[in-house]
């Protein structure tokens, strides 16, 4: 007679459901991790509201884990194989003008220097004047309005709507609004901004570009040689700076003006710190290019002590709700305030009363 313990039917049935349940939970968790970035992007593209906030809170931690351990790569490979997305490399088209610096006019041919007569000495060389490379916008009319493009990530949605209203009031600015929710400069697989900008530039339609990025860019980034860096790492900053500089160069040239709008303060101190670091990149790269002006929104949305508050005193002195309950985006009053700041710069450049 065998000494092995025999389990009864009830015991065997009790172990199997637990095993099956464990396999199901594990499989579901793996499926979520493999697709978490796509689920997060789907949530970000939802309309503002409680449902969007809920799903973002659910998927963001999974997406962060997925990207950290490259679990999203199988999904990315599949998307590329099926022709979905624009690829995960940020490919910048060649700068217009065959490598000539954008915004720079061809240098005038200087007359040949006259050789001094022997014995008369060498005259002091005249200082070379520094060329003014800033675009010079024409003063538009109702019949020939200034053609302006405004867009970027989700932060440009409410801002752009306000800008369009204010532009219409001038009667001499024809603005096009082109926000791409959940997009940015770190994930070209979601939206190919360099390719989109290249098409807009090649069309020759716009004289002014107003762009705003950053709110969705605090995530992993892939360099052209395939390395992946996370925010805060030196490699991330170098690659992001390369992309910002490349977009500025792409949009420049042809006497076009680029207004690069910085991010405002955020409710989260950690997120604010990240946005401040991005603003520093925008400001520094704009300072190198006469055709780009950096517009700093930060002071417009801080309290007198420099902190965050969703309710601020507007230009008319009334306290208004400026920020969305998510602590990131602008609501209508905030968009109007930011648009007024941009419009003031644009009117000064185009000499619009």
From TrEMBL:
Positions in coiled-coil regions: none
Keyword set, alphabetical order: Membrane, Transmembrane, Transmembrane helix
InterPro entries in the record: DUF459 (IPR007407), SGNH_hydro_sf (IPR036514)
TM segment ranges: 20-39
Region (Disordered): 90-140
Comp. bias (Low complexity): 106-125
Official protein name in the record: DUF459 domain-containing protein
Organism: Tepidiforma bonchosmolovskayae
